[in-house]
Amino acid sequence: AKQLGRNNFQFYDAQLNAEGQARLQMEADIRLALEREEFVLQYQPKVDLHTGRIASAEALVRWRHPQKGMVPPLSFISLAEETGLIVPLGAWVMRTACLQNMAWRQAGIGPLRIAVNVSARQFARPDFVETVSSILRETGLPADGLEIELTESMVMEDVGNAIGVMTALRDLGVLLSIDDFGTGFSSLAYLKRFPISVLKVDQSFVRDIEKDDDSRMIVLSIIDLAHNLKLKVVAEGVETASQFDYLRSRGCDEIQGYFFSRPLDAAAFAALYGKHGET
Ligand code: C2E
Ligand code: CA
Ligand code: CA
Ligand code: CA
Predict the structure, then answer these.
(1) pLDDT tens, position by position, 50-84
(2) Where would I find the EAL domain in this sequence (predicted)?
(3) Which terminus in the chain has less CB density within 10 A, N or C?
(4) 75 CA distance to ligand 4 centroid (A)?
(5) CA 173, 200, 110: angle at the middle one, nearest 5?
């Protein structure tokens, strides 16, 4: 029995080691990918339902892997967060997105807002506000051309600090959104104190808006809540004409989703803007 136990232990140990090895390999790969500039951004339009025009573009990162092809963010963002590599990666994303917005503006596209996702790990750094303001300075993008998407959980982790950081960002002129709204645990009492401009209704509620009474009630409640707090509401994950029509009829301010457009590379986004941006 003793022998068996020992073998089991070795087996378990070897498995842990294999996982550890894979993580270390992935970490090294991400580091190298940053150096080799293998990350790319795609941009998904958000359409203003009051004007019918593209108002904003959300930057979404992909890894153009030399062997694996286009790797989606969900397969590397969490490891990048755990290892801290999200800090240089996130700064690259923000700088690249701001530069792209400047290039569009110079080409007569816009002026649009560019929205960037930020991780808890970035947001919690004492130099985060300074990083944002130096990216704006370096790229020349006016602060109101940048929107930062935060999640409820990262803001609720340390509310006191988060309100300070959000206020400093707002004072720079940057717009703040709460992403995936409805899936976290932000208290309404705090929501009123957050210097934010937008609530993004999570796509899980939008998806079931027609089939499920609860989802529909949640979406309607979020629209009311946002408007009562003088915030805009964006619905994400809008895939069908009937979802689009319903949300428009209920006063949702902006929509984002495959119904209007998938995330696009910068050139395709510019072409789409040419067709729809001014309608
Ligand atoms: P998210 O911020 O909630 O972004 C929305 C996700 O939904 C994107 O997936 C987008 O492509 C997808 N989506 C958009 N419209 C539709 C639709 O109509 N139907 C469906 N089913 N999906 C739709 P993506 O690009 O794979 O990104 C996944 C997540 O990865 C993002 O969720 C965000 O949390 C994270 N992420 C992406 N880029 C970055 C980044 O630069 N930094 C950080 N920290 N996280 C990022
Ligand atoms: Ca987002
Ligand atoms: Ca989201
Ligand atoms: Ca999400």
Answers:
(1) 999 999 999 999 999 999 999 999 999 999 999 99
(2) 23-277
(3) N
(4) 13
(5) 50
Where would I find the beta strands (DSSP E) of the chain?
39-48, 54-65, 69-71, 113-117, 146-151, 175-181, 198-201, 232-236, 254-256
The CA angle 140-143-149, to the nearest 5 degrees, is: 120
Average pLDDT over every residue of 211-223:
94
Q: Which residues contact 222 (CB under 8 A, 6 or more apart)?
A: 181, 182, 199, 201, 205, 233
Q: Of all protein residues, whose CA lies closest to atom 35 belonging to ligand 1?
A: 73
How much is the pLDDT for 4?
A: 58
The helix (run of H) or strand (run of E) holding residue 251 is none
Q: What's the rounded Cα separation, in Å, for the pair 221 and 90?
A: 33
Evaluated on CA atoms 229, 231, 232, 236, the torsion sign reads negative
Do 196 and 231 touch, CB atoms closer than 8 A? yes
ipTM for this prediction: 0.98
Pocket residue to mutate for ligand 1, from 58, 60, 147, most atoms within 8 A of Cβ = 60
Give the separation between CA 61 and CA 80, rounded to whole angstroms. Answer: 12
- 220 vs 214: CA distance, rounded Å: 10
Residue 190 pLDDT level (bands cut at 50, 70, 90): confident
